[in-house]
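Running this now, will post back.
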Amino acid sequence: MPREAGGPGSSGGPGGPGALSESGGLDGWKTLASRYALLPLRLFLGITFLYAGFDKLTDPAFFGDSGTGSIGEMMRGVRDSSALPSLVDLALKNPTGFGYAIAFGELAVGIGTLVGLFARVAALGGVLISLSLWLTVSWQVRPYYLGNDLAYVMAWLPLLLAGASVLSLDRLLAVRRRIR
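Update: finished.
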């Protein structure tokens, strides 16, 4: 009977944790798929947040206190329909600073997620950014499932819970700590 990866008698070598079963059958593919299951989500969220951060940083209108496309105008537009108007008021005290904080936060979250460095911290940042946007900017969207910020909150939660165990700097650092 083939030994399953990570099962009793695993040695870490061929047939050890993460390896395909000796027969290379369906169990081996399930193990491999499970190991890499969060990678597409990491790539999507990392690329999306990098793009969002760069998009803000390269849009000169975004950082304005007022005017079409500015963060200030957007925040004033959602203030009365927001679940947390006090958070919008806080952002309106310095719209430019708030815009830069969001843009650089998105860049940090995107980079951390893509390379898997402090992946849980990056995922927590993604949850917080998405949650704050849902409670302020997209709160008024009806029905709720048409607003994308809540979906992003839910997408970040598996990465927050699981971290980045494969193809990540976190994994590389963990292996290196065990060797020492």
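The longest helix spans residues 95-115. More later if anyone needs it.
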